[in-house]
Amino acid sequence: MLIVFAIFALGAVSSSAKEIMRIKNQLNQTSVAAGSWLAANNVHPKITQSILRHSDINLTMSRYTHTLRGQEAQAVAELPDLSLASGQNIATGTDDRPLNLNDGGS
Q: Is this model's pTM higher than 0.85 or not?
């Protein structure tokens, strides 16, 4: 990419080639924005892949979808609380007797 900028700086590329590169860059930015928006709105990744016309889901997920600020924290906050209160009994599923976690399971 640095070479491309150096060539532009030296004026070795015609103005029409510069315009093509500019339009290509704008289209890429639009694709990235669309992929990120679709992911943020819980659109299935395969649908996003199809809309962006990618043959490989890895390209779609690694390059064209980005998490938005706060999404990770929101996802963790939505996880269920799986902790058990101290001494709480749970059914083991093997018999009708609950398993007491305080006595080592006997």
A: no
